[in-house]
TrEMBL record:
Annotated ranges, domain Cytochrome c-552/4: 33-69
UniProt-listed InterPro entries: Cyt_c-552/4, Multihaem_cyt_sf, Multiheme_Cytochr_ET
UniProt KW keywords: Signal
Signal peptide: 1-27
Protein name: Cytochrome c7-like protein
KW Cytoplasm (keyword) present: no
Keyword Hydrolase: no
Length: 449
């Protein structure tokens, strides 16, 4: 139930005195604590924050500023603030005092580990090839900073503000609930909307938001957004809504057979991030959980057919492009054709974008029913990079290094003996060309040259 209007100073005083001011004049337990009333007395000068909180479930539950921000003197980020010990950051560990299950699921999730990527080649690209200021406002705003506390108890502006989902907090906990449930409403309704995920899940290497918008799911969401009842407390697919799913529907929200989860990996049976896709741990159980979500709207043959197509697509990605490309690059390094340094050869960049950009777009397009991302932004771009950039550059590098036999080895192992690559060395099959011409003639009554 949303509260209408602004808190007045009189209402705060009444609350502190133990009177209810939620439309009932009778004496009851105070809506807010006397500590929070003092916070509000000063922070009325920040009307946006106060108004957001007034419209929150926290307000209705009597949870205020002090209940969330109170700290112990021993806390690393504790500071004295007008007679109170408080901390600016409300960490998942703090939220877990009232929401223990949600906090535990989040801490165990892939989201909480998002900061680990900053110690990989992604981090090298940002910090070395880009620069620290770019990392602070770019990479870490999604993956999370390691928040540092200065000697005076304030937070280091090089690491804060930050709501990255894998943020390391001063108390050692990982992540931030406000990455999805934005301060200070902490709204379920807002977190259920795909735009919440779009802060991080978009762009050339992980365009889930764009893929979703292209898909039938995204089209239906835009058409029937106002009918999805996203403010309902339980929000079960097929019961509370049925017109369209959002990101939360598939990855986190309840079905008639399973509850809400804050571990976003519990329904993912493939790793679509890695250079070569592999099944995740307990993949069959995770697949069954996701199929259960799909079954809220789709028939069993439809669901089974979709996953057969997805598995075949990932097999194509792995076998035709990802594995050969990785092994070709590794062979060039082993043979001394290119160095073993990172991103000091053009082939390093070609290979990186082949799997990290085109390959991810392809796989997410297939997994989320985005045909243009599966093909034109995905496999087509991968094929172009593989045939038109990687292989010619490999040949050029071998010749420049005086080792043309290495390229011959590449052709013999990865290209010539593989029927899916024969067009590259022998051209298109004439019989296949004639079949295409016949198809166009029969379907479109049109000759193709």
């Amino acid at each position: 139930m949303k509260r209408v209007g602004r808190l007045t100073l009189m209402a705060l005083l009444l609350a502190a005195a133990g009177l209810c001011f939620a439309g009932n004049a009778s004496a009851k337990e105070p809506r807010i604590s006397k500590e929070t009333a003092q916070c509000l007395d000063c922070h009325e000068g920040m009307p946006g924050i106060v108004s957001q909180w007034e419209d929150s479930a926290h307000w209705n539950a009597g949870v205020g500023c002090y209940e969330c921000h109170k700290a112990d003197k021993s806390d690393p980020d504790a500071m004295e603030h007008y007679g109170f010990q408080v901390a600016v950051i409300v960490s998942p560990r703090d939220c877990g005092a009232c929401h223990p299950r949600e906090a535990a699921e989040q801490e165990a999730s892939h989201h909480a580990k998002a900061g680990d990527i900053l110690n990989t080649k992604d981090g090298l690209l940002g910090q070395t090839i880009g620069g620290e200021p770019a990392v602070a406002v770019g990479c870490r705003q999604c993956h999370g900073s390691i928040v540092k506390v200065r000697e005076d108890g304030s937070l280091d502006p090089a690491t804060w503000p930050n709501t990255g989902i894998g943020r390391i907090n001063p108390d050692g906990s990982k992540g931030t609930c406000s990455a999805c449930h934005t301060r200070h409403r902490f709204s379920k309704e807002q977190a259920r909307q795909p735009e919440s995920c779009g802060k991080c899940h978009l762009g050339p290497d992980h365009p889930q938001k764009e893929v979703y918008e292209e898909s039938k799911h995204g089209i239906l969401y835009r058409a029937f957004k106002d009918d999805l009842n996203m403010d309902h407390p339980k929000w079960i697919a097929g019961e509370d809504y049925y017109d369209a799913p959002t990101c939360a529907t598939c990855h986190m929200s309840a079905t008639p057979n399973q509850g809400v989860t804050h571990d976003v990996g519990t329904r993912l049976s493939w790793n679509l991030r890695a250079p070569v896709s592999k099944r995740t741990d307990n993949w069959q159980q995770k697949l069954d959980s996701m199929k259960d979500v799909c079954s809220a709207c789709h028939s069993s043959p439809f669901v089974e057919g979709f996953y057969q197509q997805l598995d075949a697509f990932i097999g194509l990605y792995n076998d035709k492009f990802a594995v050969p490309a990785k092994e070709i690059r590794d062979l060039l390094m082993e043979e001394g054709v290119i160095s073993k340094g990172n991103f000091d050869d053009e082939i390093d960049w070609i290979y990186w974008e082949l799997w990290h950009h085109e390959g991810r777009r392809a796989r997410h397009g297939a997994a989320m029913s985005g045909p243009d991302y599966a093909w034109w932004h995905g496999i087509y771009d991968m094929a172009k990079a593989f045939y038109n950039h990687l292989l010619p550059k490999a040949k050029e590098a071998c010749e420049k290094a005086g080792k043309p036999e290495v390229y011959e080895k590449i052709l013999a192992k990865y290209i010539d003996g593989r029927p899916e690559h024969q067009w590259f060395t022998k051209g298109f099959d004439p019989k296949r060309i004639e079949q295409i011409k016949k198809y166009y003639k029969e379907r479109y009554n049109q000759d193709v040259k």
